[in-house]
Amino acid sequence: MGWMLDFFMQPDPILSPWYVITNPQAFDERITMQSGAEKYALVFTQPATAKAFLRDLQDPTLILEELGTWVFKETFLSTLAPLNVTRVMFDYVQGQHQAMSAPLELLRQHCKAQIGLLPRAVA
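Below the sequence we write its predicted structure tokens.
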């Protein structure tokens, strides 16, 4: 029962600040993973999880970058389309068999609506 409470107390990954791993020397590079026909980009909402993943990569050229606004999030998502990314995976831990993910285009549309580039959906 405790795990269920933990699940519902987790912050919404879309609303949380995002942490992404980037290479300042190669701005067009992104960390991606392929699974079947889906290509995932990684986004972290917990700095500790992101730092652990970054440490495991053992690449001194990579850094952790915080995306705290809708504009930064949408800009990041826009860079994924040319890489044929189809989904964004949140808080992936190496060896984990499941992680929350969302379609790239759905996230882009949501970010655009939040910054006023698209009309908001009426509920």
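The helical segments are 2-9, 47-57, 70-80, 104-114.
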